[in-house]
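Try this one yourself first.
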């Protein structure tokens, strides 16, 4: 019986294998998001499904489904809306 025949507890799996898996999943997700696949095609629907499954895996590994989502930074307007000139 091999040493790897027993399943790793999820906590150990997250620490040992998690970072490497997250790196690969992030690269794959980024390539799918930036792909030039036309909207509404079966290929785009499949790509969106794969992206969703990558987000599911990120949630299992990190507890955060939006781990790979880009945060939009708030733009601060320097000028008031009602300027008198």
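Now uncover the answer:
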């Amino acid at each position: 019986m091999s040493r790897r025949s027993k399943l790793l507890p999820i906590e150990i799996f997250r620490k040992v294998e998690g970072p490497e898996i997250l790196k690969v999943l992030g690269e794959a997700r980024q390539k799918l998001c930036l792909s030039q696949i036309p909207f509404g095609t079966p290929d785009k629907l499949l790509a969106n499904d794969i992206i969703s499954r990558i987000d599911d895996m990120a949630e299992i590994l990190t507890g955060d489904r939006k781990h790979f989502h880009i945060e939009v930074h708030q733009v601060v307007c320097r000028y008031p809306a009602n300027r008198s000139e």
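Discussion: Helices lie at 10-16, 18-33, 42-62. DSSP finds three helices and no strands in the chain.
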